[in-house]
Amino acid sequence: MWPTLTADLLALVILCFGASVEQMSYRPQSCTLECIRQGDPECEYCRITANEVQLSTSIPYTSIFGSCVPWPCHSFLGQDTPEVCLHYVDAPRNIQIEFENNQDPTFDAITVSWNPSQYGIAFLRGFQVTLQALGGSQILCQLFLLRNNLTLTHAHAQRVYYSDPFTRLSLDARYVVTIMALPVPEQWHQFYQKKEFFTRTCREKNGLEECKKDWYPRYVEVHQENQDIFVTFNLAPENFKIRHYFSSCFGGGLRNYTNIEPDFGRNKTHHTYRLQNLRAGTNYTCEIAANVVDAVRKSFVVVVQHNYEDPLTSHFTERSLLVVLLSVGILLAATATVIFTVLYKKRLKNAVKTKMRPDIIEQYYDKKLDEGQCVLLESNTCPPRLLICYSRNDGSAHVKVVLQLAAFLQKHMATQVHLDLWESLSIMEDGILSWHCRRLNECDFVMVICSRGLLQNRKNQYENEDQNTDENTTLTTIAMIGQEMCRAKALGQDLSKYMAAIFEYSEESDIPAVLGLASRYTLTEDLPLLFSHLHGVPLQKPGVYLQVENISESGYFKLPAGAALQQAIQEAKVQLLDE
User: What's the pTM?
Assistant: First the structure.
């Protein structure tokens, strides 16, 4: 009896000791592929670097570290012993994210840990770890291998494996980490585990005092009362203890500086201040920020309208004023009659072709116009420059819609549009990719027209080597846009330059994840919102709302260019929805 009890106790001690051993953590070692193949005990869990892969001619270097596609086991382990790659292992489990202490205040760093699955663990040969920024193009890969003659059992499933640190991650950004055990089958989509997480905010990582300069007003509203310009903006959170702000405006060759001291007893969330000494009829570019060192500044535009009760009118006598008004009235009436006659004949001629109702030739009146505010864009105002990117994969009908939209924006929304269909000569001189890069830097705004074909191209970009050059350029351009948006967000800069738009025959799901930070519009429903975005004018404020003639959803097609856009959308809807 005693020998049996002693043996049982000894087995229990060994089992407990073995369990405690297998719960140990394993961090990557520096070793070589040759050491792993020979099964050296010192190379139990090894990182494989790009330099090590370059030394091995049997491994496709560009494929491994370029696209983060699961790597074939036979390329790094199966040359001498192909049997090690005949089986696959289930996905790891218990993914944990640990934040690392680094000295760079503008970036975060993490380390990933996990447990291997007990299913197929006897054939485990390593792990692939991929980190991707959601809404961006940043993808990082790490590869770890176990020594070739290592055999694990289900008891080893309690081991904790660690990755190397992932550094230079944007603060307050959303990432997803994906881990798969090697080898994996060719259809690997069911054999991975992923975890989404947010990096730390500036305040969480560096403390409140270090992050005051990263805050900036996100809400700015400008309104004019007679000759007075008032600006309302949101204040910093109370715990930031920011008590002073400033604004600076430049226009007409002069700079106007305003020191702002809010009254926190009246309002703790917003403050309104007055801009003084601004000239009527002048466009000003203004900035507002907290009055701290290296604070991020918010830019906005102020257009000072003329005062309609100008005292200069008092110099005219009633008789001279009446004569002037009568002359102008007769001239306008004659001009309106000629224009109406020409448009009437033109629309009668094109009535059959456009298939529009006869009532569109009637003059359009907005009964609410007197209650709102009319925006007049003068001809000497510099129009915003807009680059339109799109995919030709949806066919000629979709391309025609994009072309008609560009024509409408340029003709009726005071926007200078840059479209590859219009600039063939420049593209032949610079090359299609160089042209897109130059326009991305030069234009004030960039709008990507998203569609089913664009999203399908992104899914197939690694599968179709013979993909059209234009589509490859479009995908490359979108990747650059995503990278620029991530960089701007990391620096606390304005993201209003970038927009994503769909037509009514597309869906929200057609917008790629890389454009997740861009403003989204559905056309033609959101034409007023798009106009507000391009020209920086608010659509509404207390007691007043903005109406732009012939740009509303129910009024744009009353213009010839709008009617052509509507007809192109209907044709594309019939063609694409029937496929």
Answer: 0.40
